[in-house]
């Protein structure tokens, strides 16, 4: 998992060995953040199959697998998607969750695969909830 809390962290990550696909997504998000004046108001988290729910929660204080209001978990039949934005980028899912009114947002990039995070995104995009 990569936790990139600001533009400097994203720039540093882009200097590390990343897949071409992930590097392209991060570079595009960084360019957009800078153009919108949100470079230090965006926290990107890269979640891959081996990353656990606990690790994500430790990094950012919450997990997309849990509904923030009623506490239901993704694998519960009562769970409903709540994010402001969910998109399939082809190889990666993107969840955007703004916090407050100052422009701050989390962007979660979730690798396609067999993780609970990826399954949740797949189902949400298919309106299976």
Description of the structure:
The model has no long low-confidence stretch (mean pLDDT 94). Strands 1-2-5-4-3 form a five-stranded mixed beta sheet. The two termini are 27 Å apart. It has one domain (2-125). The chain has helices spanning 7-14, 20-35, 53-60, 116-125; strands at 2-4, 42-47, 85-88, 92-98, 105-111. Helix 1 runs antiparallel to helix 2 (20-35). Strand 4 and strand 5 (105-111) form a beta hairpin. It is globular. With 129 residues, it is α+β, with helices and mostly antiparallel strands.
Give the secondary structure arrangement, pairings included:
Blueprint: E1 2-4, H1 7-14, H2 20-35, E2 42-47, H3 53-60, E3 85-88, E4 92-98, E5 105-111, H4 116-125
Parallel strand pairs: 2-5
Antiparallel strand pairs: 1-2, 3-4, 4-5
Structural class by sheet pairing and helices: alpha+beta
Measured distance between first and last alpha carbons: 27 Å
Topology, number of strands: 5
Q: From the alpha-carbon coordinates, what is the Rg to the nearest angstrom?
A: 14 Å
Largest sheet: 5 strands, mixed
Lateral strand order in the biggest sheet: 1-2-5-4-3
Count of alpha/pi helices: 4
Report mean pLDDT, rounded to a whole number.
94
Strand content: 15-25%
Report the order of strands and helices. Answer: EHHEHEEEH
Percent range for helical residues? 25-40%
Task: Please mark out the parts with pLDDT under 50 across 5 or more consecutive residues, or reply none.
Answer: none
The structural domain count equals 1
Shape designation: globular
